[in-house]
Amino acid sequence: MARQKSPTVRQLEYFEAVARMLNYRSAADELEISQPALTAQISALESSLGVALLERSRSGTHLTPEGRELLPHTRDVLAAMRTLEERAAVVSEGRQTTYRLGVPPTLGPYLLPHVMPELHKRYHKLKLYVREQPHQTLLQELRNGSLDIAILPLPVRADDLIIEALFTEPLRYVVPADHSLSGTPVVRPRQLRGERVLTLEAQHHIHSLVKSVCDKLGASIERDYEGTSLDTLRQMVVMGLGTAFLPALYIHSEMHKPEALYVCQVEGMPLVRDHGLAWRAGAPSRHFYRELAGDIREFVDLRLGDVVRPANTPGRGGKR
Amino acid sequence: MARQKSPTVRQLEYFEAVARMLNYRSAADELEISQPALTAQISALESSLGVALLERSRSGTHLTPEGRELLPHTRDVLAAMRTLEERAAVVSEGRQTTYRLGVPPTLGPYLLPHVMPELHKRYHKLKLYVREQPHQTLLQELRNGSLDIAILPLPVRADDLIIEALFTEPLRYVVPADHSLSGTPVVRPRQLRGERVLTLEAQHHIHSLVKSVCDKLGASIERDYEGTSLDTLRQMVVMGLGTAFLPALYIHSEMHKPEALYVCQVEGMPLVRDHGLAWRAGAPSRHFYRELAGDIREFVDLRLGDVVRPANTPGRGGKR
DNA sequence: AACATTGATAACCTAACCCTATCAACAAAT
DNA sequence: ATTTGTTGATAGGGTTAGGTTATCAATGTT
Predict the structure, then answer these.
(1) Are B217 and B189 in contact, with CB atoms under 8 Å apart?
(2) Which residues of A touch B148 (CB under 8 A)?
């Protein structure tokens, strides 16, 4: 009647062995324990299940009908346990499971298509679950464990996170095709004075970046028309609502044939955003994350070397 | 790297709780153990799996990617264990599982159709796996555990078995329709002298029974034509190859309209076979088996009372 | 009749497991 | 800036689950 405590896995292994061999001593041999230990564990199992599993006699041991019924369920438990252990053995090699990666919506769609295929080539079993969120949300989700790693706009100050710089991405100045600056490859900063500049909603990092530049140049942020994505922002420029600063990777990815738009450089104006990979300082996989950061730098340099600049990588020495 | 020993169920329960609550102390509360004990068991689990499952920090606990991957497998093991325990709880009530019943081929098909429906009514979840074998084989299979119970021709002498008498079944004398005794309801023993009597192969219990009677009466066993079943035996009588003694239950079940045959009684000749239910003396379900024997007696009396006689039931007193 | 083999039992030992008490690190509120 | 409360980790100690060897009675085999 004592049914308070669960059977142990060991007891189930013992039962399975005896049920298979129908002999306590040889089962004990196989299990590399003594026969009395086996007897004791089987008895304990029977009393915890409240059922007689085996019929003992001096002339051989048999399964009871109940034991016959429960044996398959016992094997189910053992099989599930074996599956767990095998899966653990695979996963313990690392780089074989699903990591949760957060990216800002103004970067992910234009960066990841270039990086993910290379990562997949290098780490065959690695899977990345990608989640797009505003950078503040990314930071929060990284902290609360919803994300394992995130690509964030730099600088990030946080003691509890490790941040490894990835690369520096210029912003380009985009005007409508019928704009007075259209056709001018390199514009001077002063030419921007008084321009109406469109940008994204304030929650996006790019907003504050563009705002501070505009303040410096005397251009005006058009707050009545804020884009919710880079694509809508571009459409608004096409429609003649104003001009905009757009990230180079966006332009590279989405505007191979820019109709109705003209892309300029601003002279002597290093308007850029920096991206870094971040993870919790205590994350057990931190070594792999650092490796990942190196991989991403490598692939960006390889496939996007003419669009973005490699990050300064302090602490890693001159990696050029 | 230590992966020698399996995780314990308890460790998996602990892991599941922490993964669910993401807090050691409250998980420890729920599990009704102290927090240090929980810490220790989780560490042990991680080292036996060779994987970090949880990322501890003073500000909250998170699953690692590997822990996230392994958590469902952990739950699988726990679910399988719960299934086993539930199944055991059901089965421990008794009368709910499959018992293996052996019957002689000259009895089973003619007895069980009358008994099984009643048993099913009384024990809703009980299942009987029925196996037909010659009685010597039944005895052997009962001993080696292939069968749990068996209906056997009495007497059976075996210290290691319990035998409970069920009922006594007359044998009737059957002659072809054109036989000289056809139409004689009650024949005298001496009228059988010189008759050719057909019977089953020697492995069947009925063979020796019939043989000893024939020896006594001066009838001759026809060994060149031995039936392999009661049905073929009947056909042989119809064909005029001889006469036969057939069990009353067979006649009751299969010969409601006996064409080409005539069934006699032999005066003052108690030619009968006794049937008993047998099980191993040490069988944990022996009390239920004894109950079963009583049930079978009851149902036989109810449905076949005019064909067979109740057994003398020594040791149970006058159940009359 | 002698011998080997079955599972159960006795007596004992070790280590697994839990406890309480305490710690250092951090968060939040003052 | 300091205090207070909470986090998971660690230390020291006690109980018992689970192992051992030695032995038994019952049974099967030679």
Answers:
(1) yes
(2) 65
pLDDT for residue B315? 40
Set of chain A residues whose Cβ sits within 8 Å of the Cβ of B283: 55, 64
Q: 3-class SS at B52?
A: coil
CATH of the domain at A227: 3.40.190.10
Query: What are A265-311's pLDDT values in tens digits?
Result: 877 777 889 999 999 888 888 889 999 999 999 999 999 888 888 87
Q: Rounded to a whole number, what is the largest CA-CA distance in chain B?
A: 105
Residue range B257-273: average pLDDT? 77
Q: Which of A133, A101, A144, A146 is nearest to A119 (CA)?
A: A101
pLDDT at A149 over 90: yes
* B301 has pLDDT over 60: yes
Which residue shows structure tokens 């010597």?
Answer: B136
pLDDT given at position A118: 93
Domain that holds residue A177: 169-272
Pull the structure tokens for residue A59: 């002339």
| Domains held by chain B: number | 3
Based on the fold, state whether residues B175 and B154 are members of the same structural domain: no
Cα gap A287→A277, rounded to integer Å: 13
Residue A72: is the preceding peptide bond cis (ω within 30°)? no
Binary contact (A81, B7; C-beta < 8 A): yes
Higher pLDDT, A87 or B209: A87
Q: How far apart are the first and last CA of chain A?
A: 74
Asked if A175 and A181 touch (Cβ cutoff 8 Å), the reply is: yes
- Give the bridge partners for B247, in sequence order: B171
Taking all residues of chain B, what is their mean pLDDT, rounded to a whole number?
83
**Are residues B163 and B189 both part of a single domain?**
no
Report the candidate in A151, A165, A173 with the shortest Cα–Cα distance to residue A267.
Answer: A173
CB pairs under 8 A between A and B: 164
- Residue A316 belongs to a domain: no
CB of A33 nearer than 7 A to strand D: yes
CB-count exposure of residue A268 (10 Å: 0-12, 13-18, 19+): exposed
CA distance B134 to B130: 13
Compute, in degrees rounded to 10, the torsion defined by CA atoms B73, B74, B80, B81: 170
Interstrand relation of A196-198 and B149-153 (parallel, antiparallel or unpaired) = unpaired
Contact (Cβ atoms closer than 8 angstroms) between residue A37 and residue A28: yes
Between CA B246 and CA B250, with CA B249 as vertex, the angle to 5 degrees is: 55
CB atoms B49 and A73 under 8 Å: no
Are A57 and A150 in a shared domain?
Answer: no
In a domain, B317, yes or no: no
Q: What angle do CA B93, B96, B100 make, to 5 degrees?
A: 125
Over range B41-67, report the average pLDDT. Answer: 86
Q: How far apart are CA B299 and CA B115, in angstroms?
A: 6
Among B278, B281, B302, B305, CA closest to B104: B278
Q: Give the residue from chain A lying closest to B142, CA to CA.
A: A62
Distance of CA A56 to the CA centre of its chain: 56
Long-range pairs of B143-146 with CB within 8 A, sequence gap ≥ 24: B143/B280, B144/A60, B144/A62, B145/A22, B145/A55, B145/A60, B145/A62, B145/A63, B145/B280, B146/B100
Task: Please indicate, yes or no, whether residues A161 and A300 belong to a single structural domain of this protein.
Answer: yes
